[in-house]
Amino acid sequence: MGQLTLTGSGAHQHHVEAVAAVLFFLLLLLQVATTCCSAASNSSESDEASSSSLMQQLQWGNARATWYGQPNGAGPYDNGGACGFKNVNQYPFMSMTSCGNQPLYRDGKGCGSCYKIKCSKHPACSGRTETVVITDMNYYPVAPYHFDLSGTAFGKLAKPGRNQDLRRAGIIDVQFARVPCEFPGLKLGFHVEEGSTQVYFAVLVEYENGDGDVVQVDLMESSSAGGGRWTPMRESWGSVWRLDSGHRLQPPFSIRVRSDSGKTLVARDVIPRNWRPNTFYRSIVQYS
């Protein structure tokens, strides 16, 4: 069989065609690979979006619940608790209160947070949801999330006529979800704590709609004294915030409150010139 030999322009043309064919093949492989990677990337993004959406829908968590105090009481014997709230047996709390362990109490920053809870595993459980407010600290948790409910709140989880049966269980499994707080008819309130003086000022913040809790409080003295500047207060304990000023404070005081979600609210001149310790002052503002 004869050998075909290409010379001159014919050989050059064959070489060019061969190179073009190889480049076309490589481009085809690159396009396929790119298409596959793109599809994988889109699939991953779609999975992440679905997972994020699913996580938003799965707002119920698992916890355990106990109860303390009187069977039909508000928990603490003095109707108070480690958050500093007073008269939690009265409106708006109405004894529907709970201690929270650290993930719920959060060193006091969880004070005032509202949760829906329900139980279904115990035969006496109604499966109905009830709303409770964190007003106290649970020092001996029996689970990663532990609600130590008032006797009233614990009994509310039971079927009609079976609240005593449920209380006798002692420890029950519950589901919980964080929900906005609603205090109809109430504005943001400030209780000036016992021991406050002209140089030391401590205030309890309560009745915050929405998040229900407070992560920062600032105080402004009379504009004639402080020049309209906000001074950060420090968390003292629970929902009590304090200011060690080092100078004679000039009322009236305005107070700025920031909630867990970053929303701020300003109560102008809410603490009057003639303020007194152990006195409650109601503002005219509230989270919507």
At CATH's second level, what is the architecture of the largest domain? Beta Barrel
Average pLDDT metric? 83
**Estimated structural class:** alpha+beta
Rg for CA atoms: 32 Å
Question: What is the overall shape?
Answer: elongated
CATH fold topology of the largest domain? Barwin-like endoglucanases
Count of separate structural domains: 2
What percentage of residues falls in helices of 4 or more residues?
10-25%
Relative strand content = 25-35%
Largest sheet: 6 strands, mixed, barrel
Q: What is the CATH homologous superfamily assignment of the largest domain?
A: RlpA-like domain
Give the spatial strand order of the biggest sheet: 1-5-2-4-3-6
Rounded to the nearest angstrom, the distance between the terminal CA atoms is 95 Å
Contiguous helical run count: 5
Low-confidence stretches: 1-58
Q: From N to C, what is the helix and strand string?
A: HEEHEEEHHEEEEHEEEEEE
CATH class of the largest domain: Mainly Beta
Total number of strands: 15
Pfam family, one: DPBB_1
InterPro entries: Expan_Lol_pI, Expansin/allergen_DPBB_dom, Expansin_CBD, Expansin_CBD_sf, LolPI, RlpA-like_DPBB, RlpA-like_sf
Family: Belongs to the expansin family. Expansin B subfamily.
Subcellular location: Secreted, Cell wall
